[in-house]
């Protein structure tokens, strides 16, 4: 019986170690240039989410230059609204906290009395929390808000990148066609990434808004101060996978404890938990479909990984970055699709043939007919721009001008 031939001369363990070493080196290099990569990746994600506006305007016969300007204004508006909501909520919290100085000390003495019954002295408590009170917390938040140097530099880089990318949108159709012609596997990967990440941002925003509205209504009903602030915080932290819910829960629970009573704080925790579980853990995944496409553990690990590589922006871009790596490196490579058995929420994605009941011989790329390719082009560029770029239903058809043999051409 013939032994199977090794496709590469190196042992498997050596290949694995070299791959891991290369991955660590790449991540380390990305961390060194996080100040550039973070704004760039955020700009790309903003354009992926907002680009359908330009395609819709072009389909309505709006001049392309006007459509590009409106696209840039939309991206700026999204960014400005996000920053304004964040700054406004922090400012409102800084102004509100000093009013609860007496409630804080009342709660402190109650906790000290309770700990005293458990054998913990007040001096031990004082050594641990000396200097922690709403006033000092407000001062800390004020200083954090006043340190705007990094934020200003980040915004400057973002603004320049947005303008540059707006100028490049005029050639997106031709670039898309060239990539599809010369690197079809890469094109398929990027097309899947764009469709998935666009669905992820839209669905996450809609359900984050629903959860925020429910939180505001509940907090207003319970009489918790700054209900609108906590609703905005809930909406913003919704974009941070897994731990964003906890970040959005802690401040209103503490405020309910200071301004009301422990029962109100407990009700806040219960309402937040129920709303998060029902909407974001049961309903939202059904609408997200394959937008995320990874397990809960991989989602959490991606948060830790990209936060350590890209900093604060890494927490916001954790899932889109994981989706990009998965689409480019795993999903469209038959020799790597087995990794989906560990990271994908759909185990059938581990089949190297792409579709489980295909022929035994795996194709070089995922099989797609003309209709699927045309739909992917339209999802990226919009139907009108895809048509203008010549990316219709016959995109997979051979091009005689390109494929004919070079005959009679002078040497």
Description:
The structure is a single chain. The protein has 411 residues and is mostly helical. 73% of the residues lie in helices and 0% in strands. It has 19 helices and no strands. The protein has helices at residues 12-32, 34-59, 64-96, 101-117, 122-129, 134-146, 149-168, 172-182, 184-222, 227-237, 244-259, 262-288, 296-310, 312-316, 318-331, 340-343, 370-381, 383-388, 400-403. Helix 2 crosses helix 3. It is globular and about 75 Å long. The two termini are 51 Å apart. Residues 144-148, 355-367 and 392-411 have low confidence and may be disordered.
Give the mean pLDDT.
75
Number of strands: 0
What's the total helix number?
19
Indicate the percent of residues in helices.
over 70%
- Listing every helix as H and every strand as E from the N terminus to the C terminus, the arrangement reads HHHHHHHHHHHHHHHHHHH
Straight-line N-to-C gap: 51 Å
- Spans of at least 5 consecutive residues with low confidence: 144-148, 355-367, 392-411
Q: Provide the gyration radius in Å.
A: 26 Å
Tell me the fraction of residues in β-strands, as a range: under 5%
Overall shape: it is globular
Largest sheet: none
Structural class estimated from helices and strands? mainly alpha
* Oligomerization state: single chain
Quick recap:
With 411 residues, the protein is mainly α.
Itemize the secondary structure elements and their pairings.
Elements: H1 12-32, H2 34-59, H3 64-96, H4 101-117, H5 122-129, H6 134-146, H7 149-168, H8 172-182, H9 184-222, H10 227-237, H11 244-259, H12 262-288, H13 296-310, H14 312-316, H15 318-331, H16 340-343, H17 370-381, H18 383-388, H19 400-403
């Amino acid at each position: 019986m013939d032994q199977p031939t090794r496709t590469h001369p190196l042992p498997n363990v050596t290949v694995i170690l070299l791959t891991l070493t290369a991955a660590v080196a790449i991540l380390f290099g990305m961390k060194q240039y996080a100040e550039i990569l973070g704004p760039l990746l955020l700009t790309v994600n903003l354009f992926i989410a907002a680009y359908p506006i330009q395609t819709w305007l072009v389909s309505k016969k709006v001049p392309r230059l006007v459509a590009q300007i409106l696209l840039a204004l939309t991206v700026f508006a999204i960014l400005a609204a996000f920053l304004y909501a964040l700054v406004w909520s922090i400012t409102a919290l800084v102004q509100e906290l000093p009013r609860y100085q007496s409630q804080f000390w009342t709660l402190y003495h109650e906790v000290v009395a309770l700990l005293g019954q458990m054998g913990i002295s007040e001096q031990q408590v004082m050594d641990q929390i000396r200097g922690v009170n709403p006033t000092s917390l407000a001062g800390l938040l004020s200083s954090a808000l006043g340190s705007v140097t990094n934020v200003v530099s980040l915004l400057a880089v973002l603004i320049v990148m947005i303008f540059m990318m707006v100028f490049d949108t005029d050639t997106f159709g031709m670039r898309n066609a060239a990539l599809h012609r010369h690197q079809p596997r890469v094109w398929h990967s990027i097309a899947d990434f764009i469709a998935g990440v666009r669905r992820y941002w839209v669905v996450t925003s809609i359900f984050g808004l629903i959860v925020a509205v429910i939180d505001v209504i509940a907090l207003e009903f319970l009489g918790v101060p700054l209900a609108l602030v906590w609703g905005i915080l809930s909406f913003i932290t919704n974009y941070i996978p897994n731990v964003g819910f906890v970040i959005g829960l802690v401040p209103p629970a503490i405020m309910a404890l200071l301004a009301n009573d422990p029962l109100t704080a407990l009700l806040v925790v219960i309402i937040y938990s129920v709303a998060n579980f029902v909407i974001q853990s049961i309903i939202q995944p059904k609408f997200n479909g394959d937008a995320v496409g990874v397990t809960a553990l991989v989602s959490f690990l991606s948060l830790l990984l990209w936060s350590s590589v890209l900093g604060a922006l890494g927490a916001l871009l954790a899932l889109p970055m994981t989706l990009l790596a998965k689409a480019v490196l795993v999903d469209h490579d038959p020799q790597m699709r087995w990794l989906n058995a560990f990271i994908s929420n759909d185990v059938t994605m581990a089949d190297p043939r792409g579709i489980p009941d295909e022929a035994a011989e795996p194709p070089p790329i995922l099989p797609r007919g003309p209709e699927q390719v045309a739909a992917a082009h339209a999802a990226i560029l919009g139907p009108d721009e895809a048509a203008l770029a010549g990316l219709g239903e016959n995109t997979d058809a051979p091009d005689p001008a390109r494929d004919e043999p070079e005959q009679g051409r002078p040497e």
